[in-house]
Amino acid sequence: MEFFNDILNNLKGDYVDIFFEEKTTNQLQMEENKIQKCSAIIDKGLGVRLIIGEKIFYAYTNDITKNGIAELISSLKNYKHAKSCINLKKFSSPNQFFIKKSPQDVNILEKIKFVKKANDTSWVQSKKITQVKVFYSDMIQKTKVANSEGYFTEEERIYTLFLVHAIASENETIQTGYEAVGGLKGIELFEEISPEEIAIKATKRAIMMLKAKRIKGGRMPVVISSEAGGTMIHEAVGHGLEADLVQEGISVYSGKLGDKVASEFITVIDDPTLPNMRGSYIFDDEGTPSQRTILVENGVLVNYLYDKYTSMKEGKASTGNGRRQSYEHYPIPRMSNTFIAPGNHSPEEIVRSVDKGLFVKKMGGGQVNTVTGEFVFEVQEGYLIEKGLIGEPIRGALLIGTGQEILKNIDMVGSDLGFSIGTCGKNAQGVPVTDGMPTIRIPEIVVGGQA
Questions:
Q1: What distance in Å separates the CA atoms of residue 114 and residue 111, rounded to the nearest whole number?
Q2: 145-170 tens-digit pLDDT
Q3: What sequence ranges are listed for the domain Metalloprotease TldD/E C-terminal (predicted)?
Q4: pTM
């Protein structure tokens, strides 16, 4: 702690914080039936942020020697320097996560076995499989955060990620299948779902889509399954609720606090305290304890996601959403585990309510404009709904609309809840997230497809 005191007592602005990080990342990638990548990366460094008024000054270094720290302090002293006396006190949180089997306790040969099992399982599913890529990653991140308010926190985060990408072809048709699992977990991830199961899901999706027909575009009812994960809520709605975009006026939700922005069936929550989710943490990257934040409650916008800087601008408390990719980046407001709360309808009831429409089982990629809320999302796996029953598979479908339109039009919300994982990109930074939603019904939305 003395190390952090020395830095803080040599710098003073309206707010100063230090982020120290020590990170070990192991990665394996198999393609063309060969291990193409096997790497272990160790990185260590710290970043110091100085906030003066509405200006942010940030410096970082991987030179943790006395001279390296002195040079970093010197680079920030040019902005503002005053004597201070800070006595750091360690801060604890009731939120804790249990890791059953740390990746560092597992031999690299065992990890290679996971990758090979998935690879071999994919190839034997069908002769139509032409390419398989399997990726494994684990990361152990140790952080320490200290600030000019006298708080000191430390945390160890362990992430494990596993994904399979399969390509199938028949005649001139090529289709892909993708499945990813992971979380704030160790090797116990593979006790929940085996490498073989992950491979089968991805591979069968690619094979099944070969026989799928192209959907005819137009406006129609759409049911999005909880299995699809919450990609749409994350992209079409979540980013617009991050306070930096709101304050800059580049969010469609700027100035709408207290307004009805969704149907009464919709409650949107961001919660990094959920056990062992990919977007979970005990403290955010500013040392603020994680907390559950309700963003939209029964259709009404009640809060935004804040970090220290954006909360200081409004005289509010941070919601614990200050996150960064590494010590080389200063924190900004980011989502963690963001989801629509479950409702009262059964998924089966929701599907039965649609005479003719589209059932989305798996979402693909997409694009969103946070200023207007307009989005386009690809449907990776979808089916026609005919007379309340899920029918034949379709391909080439796109969901086109705006976040506001979607939220206001949802008229049935399922009692189930499913999650998907990802790495969210913003301002050239990537952070681990989880997105979720129940099965929902949108009575009408534009579905792009064949003319």
A1: 5
A2: 999 888 899 999 999 999 999 999 99
A3: 218-449
A4: 0.94
